[in-house]
Amino acid sequence: MSEQATPAREAAAEPAAGGGEPPEADRFRRLVAQTVAGPPWVVTVLAIALALVVGGLLMIISDPEVTDTFGYFFARPADALSASWSEVSTAYAALFKGAIFNPDAAGSLTEALRPISETLTEATPLIFGGLAVGLAFRAGLFNIGGQGQLIMGAIATTWVGFTLDAPGFVALPAAVLAGLAGGALYGALVGWLKAGPGAHEVIVTIMLNYVAFLLLGYLIGSDVFRDPDNPQPISKPVADAARLPHLFGDSLRVNAGLLLAIAAVVFTWWLLNRSTLGFQLRAVGANPSAARTAGMSVGYGQIMAMTLSGGLMGLVGMSQVLGTANANNALTQQIDAGLGFTAITVALLGRASPVGTVAAALLFGALQAGGREMQAAAGVSIEIVTVIQALIVLFVAAPPLVRGIFRLRGEGGGHSGLLAKGWNG
Amino acid sequence: MSATLTPTTAPGSATAAATDRGHWYVGGAMTLVGLYALVAFGLGSRTDDGAKAVFNLNLLGDQAIKVPDLTVPAGPTAIALSLVCVAVGVLRLAVRLTGSRRTAATSAYLVAFVAAFLVWATSGHSLNFTSVLNATVLAATPLILGALCGVLCERSGVINVAIEGQFLVGAFAASFFASVSGSLWAGLVAGCLAGGLLGAMLAVFANRYLVQQVVLGVVINLFAAGLTGFLYERLMQANPEYNKTMAFSAIRIPVLSDLPVVGPVLFGQNAVFYLTVILIAVVQIGLFHTRWGLRTRAVGEHPTAADTVGIKVVAMRYRNVILGGLIAGLGGVWLTIGLNITFNKNMAAGQGFIALAALIFGRWSPLGAVSAALLFGFAGGISVSLQPLETPVPTAFLSMTPYLATIFAVAGLVGAVRAPAADGIPYTKS
Amino acid sequence: MSLELRGITKRFGSLVANDGIDLEVRPGEIHCLLGENGAGKSTLMNVLYGLYQPDEGEIRMDGKPLVLSGPRDAIAAGIGMVHQHFMLVDVFTVAENIMLGDERTGSPLAFAGWLDRRRARRDVAEVSARHGLDVDPDALVADLPVGVQQRVEIVKALIRDARVLILDEPTAVLTPQETEELFTVMRSLREAGRSIVFITHKLKEVKAIADRITVIRRGAVVGTAGPDASEAELAGLMVGRDVRLTVDKAPPALDEDAEPAFAVRGLTVLDESGQAAVDDVTFEIRPGEILGVAGVQGNGQTELAEAILGLRPAAAGGIWLDGRELTGRSPRQVLRAGVGYIPEDRSHDALVADSSVAENLVLDLFDRPPFGRRGTMDVRAVRDNAERRVAEFDIRTSSIDTSVGTLSGGNQQKVVVAREMSRPLRLLVAAQPTRGVDVGAMEFIHRRIVAERDQGRPVLIISTELDEIFGLADRIAVMYRGRITAIVPPDTSRADIGCLMAGIVPGSDDAPPSGDGTPPAPDATAPDTAAPDATVADTTVADSAVADSAAPDAAEAGDEPDPRQDAPVKDGDK
């Protein structure tokens, strides 16, 4: 009944608002509360820790050798505990070595930098994707169609990449722009369906994901795309000239896609905070009705937001095809690698701000890079990384849960910055 | 009770406007598609020269009552059926139909169109129609269960896009526990419970921590995919005895299963299928004729109103979301031990999202969702059966139909689609 | 059954919504709870209905303490409530709504809670017949007019055998006639020994129906009174100081020969269901004139304003400002043409709650120099503008970066007013310009509106508060069911305006002036029947008009060519 309570609150708040500063004691109390509760990043750090703990527990209970030691726990508890500890510590040590720094393999500069290079390489598409989802969030739209948009971007990039026979300074930009355009058009379709007939963007994007996925499957089997020299269903590779160059020598995978990602961050920050279009997008997102009354076109805002978001997603597809992560530099049925959905978690963790998105993408990129090392060195399936990522976002979205677990006091609020809205809204 | 005091979130005015002019769009589109069918199916080269389409109607060799094959002249039949489509389209253009008449017209149109397509596709070949129906039912069963889960959740006001995840954990748990215990029923119970647990997770984060529910569903899907993928690689890959090929055997209901065509399809399936049929009836009747149903719908439409007459809104939502999870878990059970398939990573392959589509396409009603699931199941079933017929239509495009149909539906081209008013809006006091 | 609230205190965070409230409701009385919007009336009643738990204090019934942990307890204790926003499920039938939570179940599957619809229907019919509340159990609630929906709510409470009935602002959505019908029902319930708590902020209704009155202000009881207390006394208690119901303003400096600056001709606007929400409306406003549109909420005023602003398409007719046609233009074009607009629901239509004061102040001109140039925002210009407006309009905020949603209602409204009046205006449209704002802000906003008029601009005020209309308007147009039933001068009696608001044209079959801009007022000379106790006059006039005139439809009346200028209201009967 907060709506009924609100007027009363206004009435009572009147003297405070009119009389300037709140009383000293009140301010002090609030300060204490804030310190104890911690700023939002405290919750984030705790959420990450909590997710790693749950991940560790999963490793323990799913390893028959370790669970066997629990069979005689009461006889020799040390066995069980040391087996558990060694299981988890080995895995997370491998994760760290794969993502940040590996003291065992730091013989040369290249080897010392390799884990960071891997992390940055994995983070690159996540930055594009996180920005895409975050931008749409800010305009009040939930772009769950990253998979479809990045597939469309990848298709366009690939087609340009293997048909255009041109030197690098033409072929690469052309292929990049094609990816941008492919995703943008597919995103614009969603915006148009939202602005015109009022179709809910979540439903439309989910459906378009599968349309794109099936179209991709059809195309890589078709004469236009199919690589005749390969027995697998895979497209022709893009020309060498159109591939993203390595940044620090051929043995490190980090590539020029990272520079494009940084440019995209700067652009998105400027767009949201310093451009008139961004002002309009934010107003449309926060209160479409007020935006309309103030003379803005809500439909235009929604179409622009989805176009830009789709374009950024198209760049995810572009970096998947042209980047160094793809040995073939070609389209496969798995080209999206779940990035459309991981991007959502990145945007949520980054609270839909460009800078936060970069931090979240680096974290998830590190988990991804480290996860591969973990699988190779410790034999723990990389799928655990997905579990950890999902848990981090779940915990971050529910600050009271995290505070409860760590017995922190704090003000109830704090949410993912998303308006709760139904299908009709 | 934030935001709940504005009880009726009317659908956007744009949607209302679209439906207002709807019958023009729909009628026009139907007529055009009908004309296309006439040209492509009826007058095309495939049906030339008196080619015949042969439909085999016996699923099994030992069918007690056999029916002869149905042979039709492909060209004239396709033309006749296409003309039915055109006629319905023109009718929709000329008259603004409402309610059951509109449903009847749309159904007639769909049946005629699909039949015309089938005749055209089968022209010069033979197709086992009963086996297509059987494939439809097999493909539709999990969609029905997923959509029923969606009905329970969303009718009480919680959006559930985690059906996919519930399928995955249900499928995993069913296969694992059935393999370990050797009992299919243990697997079934475990699968349902796994789905219910994921439902409980959804309910807690949605109702207690007020997390935006679509976001929540997406994250839970990732969680479920990661978890089952991890456990699969960890447990099942190394130990096939944790992931045995097992299945409920078919129970042929005496007499009924001997009926031609529908007999083996509807009365010769396994226990999970019959359970599904019972659940359809329970949910449909329960929702519209019992106290539970009335309260569920009230909580989804106007939770504050329900609260003011003493109904515990949040408890209702918890209960329904968990019940829904159990049902979606059964959908997962079907995917492994219902179909005699071992568990595999991401084996739900988007069926949870098709179930969501069926829920929306069926306008949040149990029977509507079941019809939509059957339609989508048919699109899946037919695309398999058509491959030997060498039609020029790529199966990828047939597989797209459920998704495209749903987009058309939410775009208001198939009449207004309205979700329960409070769907997705958490209920909080003061 | 007597009910007593003792020392009820309810806090929301640091805010005290109810502060030690005492209230006693005796059997068979109509107890009026009077207070301004936001005084804490609804909070108190939600405590009494078990929706909120009080932080302090207790509720006693017949001398025994009563603990209400939820509405279920309140219902069991014989307390029923009709909320301001109806608690009805639109897509349910009347019977389904009434039995919800108290379902009639039976065969064939009683164990599963099978609904016995026949019994539900019968019970509804029985209770509604007993209390003279005519409702059709099988009608869909969404199809019912608000007055009938309210009846459904009352039946819902009575079928649960409510001995104490709480009515929260029940008249806000009713016409004077429907209000009178409601009062009849209330009186008959009182005769039957039931108690009623009647929440309102309208003094005249209190005078008409209350047995006892409790006035609350800022969450605390400030006084009790009997029905013989004067309106001025009650008003004083309610707002805390002498209220001036008039606005300081000079008579309009009108040039009688001036061309009308703003004209609406034959405007028809459809609502979502395709019905005419605004039906063939015509009026003109001269430069330097305020036209006030009076009417009960929901008679097309909102749609009229939205159509002028281009937020709704016009189905017929046109809108002209200074000779330029505005019909069919987008909201942006209309604003650029010099129209200022204060929408009736500021948080929904005017402000972005999470954005800063500074950003909200440029919501309209963000992409125009000096704020936006070639797609880029000039942050400094936005801030400078905000500093100026905050000072000029006395917006009390801790900083211009504060999000607007945290400001008080009055200051939020000042942000809207500041933004809309900072453009060079050719027309000001203000809907409910002072709804939910404190008295200080109200006076400020009224002064700004009058200042706008005094600079020679046409102003259109839409308000459901007759006092505001009387205080501001130079001419009054009354809207009823989408039509303008008359345009009259501001010295027209309250009673006559009340009749017009109910669609009854004073002076029986006399035609009101059709709104074509001709000098209006058939009854400008009507004796001031309204003076001391307007309610009584309201009622009798309305009643006699219903009885005596053939209740001519405004449409038919509008076609009558020759308005008699001097028919006093009371002589309407032959």
UniProtKB/TrEMBL annotation, chain A:
Region span, Disordered: 1-24
Localization of this protein: Cell membrane
Major subcellular location class: membrane
InterPro entries xrefs: ABC_transp_permease
Keywords assigned: Cell membrane, Membrane, Transmembrane, Transmembrane helix
Entry keyword Membrane: yes
Gene Ontology cellular-component annotations: plasma membrane
Topology with respect to the bilayer: Multi-pass membrane protein
TM helices/strands, residue ranges: 41-61, 168-190, 202-221, 254-272, 298-318, 338-364, 376-398
Biased segments, Low complexity type: 1-16
One Gene Ontology molecular-function label: transmembrane transporter activity
Protein name listed in UniProt: Nucleoside ABC transporter membrane protein
Annotated source species: Thermomonospora echinospora
Phylogenetic placement of the source organism: Bacteria, Bacillati, Actinomycetota, Actinomycetes, Streptosporangiales
UniProtKB/TrEMBL annotation, chain B:
Subcellular localization, as worded in the UniProt entry: Cell membrane
GO-annotated molecular function: transmembrane transporter activity
Keyword Zinc-finger in annotation: no
Membrane topology: Multi-pass membrane protein
Protein name: Nucleoside ABC transporter membrane protein
Coiled coil ranges: none
A GO cellular-component term linked to this record: plasma membrane
Pfam family, any one: BPD_transp_2
Annotated transmembrane regions: 24-43, 77-95, 107-123, 129-151, 158-178, 184-207, 214-232, 271-288, 321-341, 372-389, 401-421
The entry's keywords: Cell membrane, Membrane, Transmembrane, Transmembrane helix
Automatic annotation (TrEMBL), chain C:
Matching Pfam families: ABC_tran
Lineage start: Bacteria, Bacillati, Actinomycetota, Actinomycetes, Streptosporangiales
Molecular function as annotated in GO: ATP binding; ATP hydrolysis activity
Region (Disordered): 504-574
GO annotations of cellular component type: plasma membrane
Matching PANTHER family: CARBOHYDRATE TRANSPORT ATP-BINDING PROTEIN MG119-RELATED, GUANOSINE IMPORT ATP-BINDING PROTEIN NUPO
Subcellular location: Cell membrane
Protein name according to UniProt: Nucleoside ABC transporter ATP-binding protein
Domain ABC transporter: 3-243, 262-506
Positions in coiled-coil regions: none
Keywords: ATP-binding, Cell membrane, Membrane, Nucleotide-binding, Repeat, Translocase, Transport
InterPro entries for the chain: AAA+_ATPase, ABC_carbohydrate_import_ATPase, ABC_transporter-like_ATP-bd, ABC_transporter-like_CS, P-loop_NTPase
Bias type Basic and acidic residues, positions: 561-574
Lipid bilayer topology: Peripheral membrane protein
Compositionally biased residues, Low complexity: 523-555
PROSITE patterns named in the record: ABC_TRANSPORTER_1, ABC_TRANSPORTER_2
